[in-house]
Amino acid sequence: MVLRQVFDVINNQVVITLPTEFRGKKKVWVTVDDQVELHLKKMELMRMAASDPLFLADIKEVEEDFSLTDNEQL
């Protein structure tokens, strides 16, 4: 099982309470990534793009450009 979650840093410490599925495990792999804010900002930009008319028009144009090749057989 993999647990991916953002945790708060308090007094330069992170406390993780593992789900019950981890009970009995002797070791877990922990990776600390301080790029969370950048990742969250990128995710928000992608959410905004999903309703951006110019972006959606570009996607439609690309779909139309490739529509003929999508039907080709290899």
Keywords:
74 residues, 2 helices
Helix-strand string: HH
- Give the overall average pLDDT: 89
Q: What's the overall geometry?
A: elongated
Distance between the termini: 38 Å
Structural class by sheet pairing and helices: mainly alpha
Task: Indicate the radius of gyration in whole angstroms.
Answer: 21 Å
Helix content: 40-55%
Number of helices: 2
Strand content: under 5%
Total strands: the figure is 0
User: Which quaternary structure do these chains form?
Assistant: single chain
Major sheet size, sense and barrel closure: none
Low-confidence stretches: none
Written overview of the protein:
- With 74 residues, the chain is mostly helical.
- It has two helices and no strands.
- It has helices at residues 36-49, 53-70.
- The longest helix has 18 residues, at 53-70.
- The radius of gyration is 21 Å and the shape is elongated.
- The model has no long low-confidence stretch (mean pLDDT 89).
Outline of this structure?
The protein is mainly alpha-helical and 74 residues long.
Topology:
Blueprint: H1 36-49, H2 53-70
